[in-house]
Design goal:
The complex is a heterodimer of chains A (about 260) and B (about 190). With about 260 residues, chain A is mainly β. Helix content of chain A is about 15%, strand content about 45%. Chain A contains two helices and 16 strands. In chain A, strands 2, 7, 8, 9, 11, 12, 13, 15 and 16 form a nine-stranded antiparallel β-sheet that branches. In chain A, strands 6-5-4-3-10-1-14 form a seven-stranded antiparallel β-sheet, with no helix packed on it. The chains are: A mainly beta (about 260), B alpha+beta (about 190).
C-alpha cells in the first residue's frame, strides 16, 4: 500500500474535521476585513480619477540641482503669482537621497500653492520630509498673504551634525526640526508642477528669481552652477540659468 | 506506512477561538509606528500614546500621536477647557483661510503639540517658536482630488529626472488656536 505524505494526512484530517471549510471561510473574512482596513483612509464616494480633463497628471520640474554628498540647500526665492493651475504647485530648496524607494528620502521647504481642488486656491509656506520607510509628512506653516506676488524669502534646509537634526528655516528663523534616518546625496531647487496646465511660476515679463542658490558641503556653503546642472521638463516652462548660483524661471504662456 | 493524525481530543472550540482571534487582530493590524528613533522629544512626548495615521474622531485618554510622532493630541485639561473661547463654527470659519471651500469632515478639540517645534536637548542653535499643549480645534477637510507628494532625483550621469510614485493625501488638517482663533499650522493625512 502506498504510504501517504504528511500533506495528504493533514488534508485528510482537515476534511474529516470539516476544518478546511472553516479555514476557507475565515481566510475570506480576513481578506475582506484587511481590504476594508487598508482602504478606510479613502473617503466614501471619492475616486482618484476626479482630476479635471484639462489637468492630466504629469509631474514636471524646472530648476537646478547639485549632485553629490551635501548637508544643506539654501536659496532666496522671489515669487510671482501664477495665473492658472490644476492640481498643485510648489517651489522649494531640498536635500534628498534617492536610494530609498518608493518615496525616496527628501526634506524640502518653500512655497506651496493650492490644495488640489479646482475650487480652492491657497498660497502658503510649507515643509515636507520623509523617512527611509515612511512619510511624506507635509506641514503648512502659514499663509503667504502676498499670493506669491512679490514675495521673497530665504528657504534653508540642512543637517546639523551636532544634534543629528534636519532643520528647516525661513529667513534665518528655525521653523521645525526632525531627526531623519538618512543623509543627503543630492540638493535641488525646483518649481514642481503636477499637470502641464499648472503654471510654472512667473511669466515671460515677470520671471521668478532663485538667487544665492547654495549647497552645504564640508562645512561650507557653495554656489551652484545652474548652467550645467539645470532641468526644464515642463513643456510650458522656461529657465534662464547663470554660472553664479542664480536662475530665473517662467511660464511661456503668460506675461 | 504513516498513520493518520488524529487530534480529535483537541477541543474544536479552542481551535476556532484561536483562529477568530487571528482574523480580528490581523484585520485591524496596521504597520507599526515609526518611532524614528532616536529623537528624545518624540519618545518622551508620545510615551504611552496610541499612534494614528489620521486624526482620530476622539482623543483617547492616553493621547494620540500622529504621523510617526510628528504631532501629539491630548484631552484638554480643565484649565485648558476654560481657555477655549472659540466655537466650532468659528474655528471652521478660521480654518477656511487655508481649507477654502473643501468640505469639512470633522472637528476635534484637543491639546495640540508639534513636536518638531520643541527645544531639542543640548541644541545650541536657534530655537523655533514652540507649539506645545495648545488648546486647539483640529479641522479636517476632505479633498475630492488628492494632493500628491512626490520625491524625485537626477540620476548620476543622465539628464533625465526620475520621480517616485506620488503619495496621495485626501485630508487637510488645519489647527486653529481655540483661545485666540489664530492659525497654528496645517498638515496632510491620507
Amino acid at each position: 500500500m502506498k504510504s501517504r505524505s504528511f500533506f495528504e494526512d493533514s488534508l485528510h484530517f482537515l476534511l474529516e474535521q470539516r476544518l478546511l471549510l472553516i479555514f476557507v471561510l475565515l481566510g475570506g473574512a480576513f481578506i475582506v476585513a484587511r481590504g476594508q482596513a487598508l482602504s478606510s483612509s479613502v473617503p466614501a464616494g471619492v475616486s482618484t480619477a476626479q482630476v479635471p480633463d484639462s489637468c492630466p497628471v504629469r509631474i514636471n520640474f524646472d530648476g537646478a540641482w547639485e549632485q553629490g554628498l551635501g548637508w544643506g540647500a539654501s536659496a532666496i526665492i522671489g515669487g510671482y503669482q501664477p495665473g492658472m493651475w490644476c492640481s498643485d504647485d510648489s517651489i522649494w530648496s531640498m536635500i534628498t537621497n534617492p536610494n530609498y524607494p518608493p518615496t525616496q528620502a527628501y526634506a524640502q521647504i518653500g512655497y506651496s500653492r493650492g490644495v488640489s481642488d479646482p475650487y480652492t486656491t491657497v498660497n502658503s509656506y510649507f515643509l515636507e520630509y520623509t523617512y527611509t520607510t515612511g512619510g511624506p509628512t507635509r506641514i503648512y506653516l502659514g499663509i503667504d498673504t502676498s499670493n506669491w506676488g512679490g514675495s521673497s524669502d530665504t528657504f534653508v534646509v540642512y543637517y546639523d551634525s551636532s544634534t543629528h537634526l534636519t532643520k528647516f528655516l525661513i529667513d534665518n528663523n528655525l521653523q521645525y526640526s526632525v531627526q531623519l534616518d538618512w543623509s543627503a546625496t543630492q540638493m535641488q531647487w525646483f518649481n514642481e508642477t503636477h499637470s502641464s496646465n499648472d503654471q510654472v511660476l512667473g511669466g515671460y515679463n515677470h520671471h521668478t528669481v532663485l538667487a544665492n542658490v547654495q549647497y552645504l558641503r564640508n562645512g561650507a556653503w557653495h554656489q551652484i552652477n545652474a548652467q550645467t546642472d539645470q532641468n526644464n521638463d515642463n513643456p510650458n516652462g522656461s529657465i534662464s540659468p547663470t554660472p553664479s548660483g542664480k536662475f530665473w524661471i517662467w511660464d511661456k504662456r503668460v506675461p | 506506512m504513516r498513520r493518520p493524525i488524529h487530534l480529535t481530543h483537541i477541543p474544536i472550540g479552542i481551535v476556532l477561538l484561536f483562529l477568530v482571534i487571528l482574523v480580528v487582530v490581523g484585520a485591524k493590524d496596521s504597520p507599526p509606528p515609526f518611532h524614528r528613533g532616536q529623537d528624545p522629544r518624540i519618545a518622551a512626548f508620545t510615551s504611552g500614546m496610541t499612534f494614528f495615521s489620521d486624526v482620530p474622531a476622539t482623543v483617547p485618554a492616553n493621547g494620540a500621536a500622529l504621523l510617526d510622532g510628528s504631532f501629539a493630541l491630548r484631552p484638554l485639561t480643565s484649565t485648558q477647557a476654560a481657555q477655549v473661547g472659540l466655537t466650532k463654527d468659528q474655528a471652521i470659519a478660521a480654518a477656511k483661510s487655508i481649507g477654502g471651500q473643501l468640505p469639512v469632515a470633522q472637528s476635534l478639540l484637543a491639546s495640540f503639540t508639534a513636536i518638531g517645534t520643541l527645544p531639542f536637548p543640548g541644541d545650541q542653535g536657534p530655537v523655533a517658536k514652540p507649539i506645545e499643549n495648545v488648546p486647539a480645534w483640529i479641522i479636517t477637510f476632505t479633498r475630492t482630488t488628492p494632493v500628491m507628494h512626490v520625491g524625485r532625483f537626477m540620476p548620476k550621469g543622465t539628464p533625465t529626472p526620475v520621480s517616485s510614485p506620488p503619495a496621495q493625501y485626501y485630508h487637510l488638517n488645519v489647527v486653529i488656536n481655540a483661545e485666540t482663533g489664530k492659525f497654528v499650522l496645517g498638515f496632510d493625512t491620507p
